[in-house]
Here is the input.
Amino acid sequence: MNEKRSQIAITGANGFVGRNLIKFLNHNKVSIISLTRSKHLSLKYETNVRYSDLDQKNLISKLKNCNALVHLIGQGTQSVDATYDDVNIELTKTIVKLCKNAKIRKIVYISGFGVSKSTTFGYFISKFKAEQEIIKSGLDYTILRASYIVGNNDPLTKNLNKQIKNDSVTIPGSGSYRLQPISVDDVTKVILASTTSKQFSNKIVDLVGPQTVTFENFVRRFTKKQAKIKKVDLEEAYHTALNQPKNAIYGLDDLNILVGDFVGSHKKLERLCGFKLTPLKKIL
Ligand SMILES: NC(=O)c1ccc[n+]([C@@H]2O[C@H](COP(=O)([O-])OP(=O)(O)OC[C@H]3O[C@@H](n4cnc5c(N)ncnc54)[C@H](OP(=O)(O)O)[C@@H]3O)[C@@H](O)[C@H]2O)c1
Here is the structure.
């Protein structure tokens, strides 16, 4: 992957996936336009565009040479000031409009693993509605429904490391619910492939790792006996998340996703991307 490829725009570029994606694209000499609200240090093949409003007119001309946009703006906790509707749905509508105005024909979006039409979970409803905005836009799309993306400084790793520093890691409930972590390095490769390969055209693909693991097993392997492990009653964990959100180790929607026990198959992803996904023992 040495030749210079066409230009890719990235929203949510300061986030965990965004930072890793930019590093990967830059390493492969792909030209990048990163869109951020706050300060951002650009890499060699990157041009950063700071904005205060995604509707602002000058963004259109800055994006006019991009052939794809990777939409990484999203949030997994809502507040009175920033609801799921505001961020996950409304900003997706704005991004779709921006793609059309700048004549960017391809959009890649990271949705959530477990999202479906029948969901009753607010976060998943917002992701489902964002997906629908993208699908009905007429743009060529790839929607990647992600399980836990893990790598240096991902939110789950940060949370567990903080707990290890305090010598005690909490497992809500039994810990027997499962997750299917995927390496951020695999995710960045899949995103690049989605922008270039027809195989990913107009598809929804589960972005899951090759193995499932119970949360307890994940925590034990991650912690490597550096801290004691404490199980807390699930009702207590939910009670703290609802009544003292600032003190909660796991937020309300973190708990919903964990206990949701969302697992699936990585086979379609491996078939489309043409490489073997990183095994769990290499991720942990
Ligand atoms: N990480 C995972 O395991 C995982 C799993 C499933 C789905 N996803 C989805 O993947 C995408 C990227 O995830 P991530 O882990 O990189 O998330 P992240 O680290 O939280 O980054 C999210 C980005 O969204 C931007 N953002 C949030 N609210 C915004 C607003 N109101 N206006 C403009 N920008 C806003 C943030 O910008 P600032 O930096 O300026 O605050 C940040 O750059 C998200 O849609 C997330 O829901 C991630």
Observations:
- The chain has a mean pLDDT of 96.
- The two ends are 27 Å apart (CA to CA).
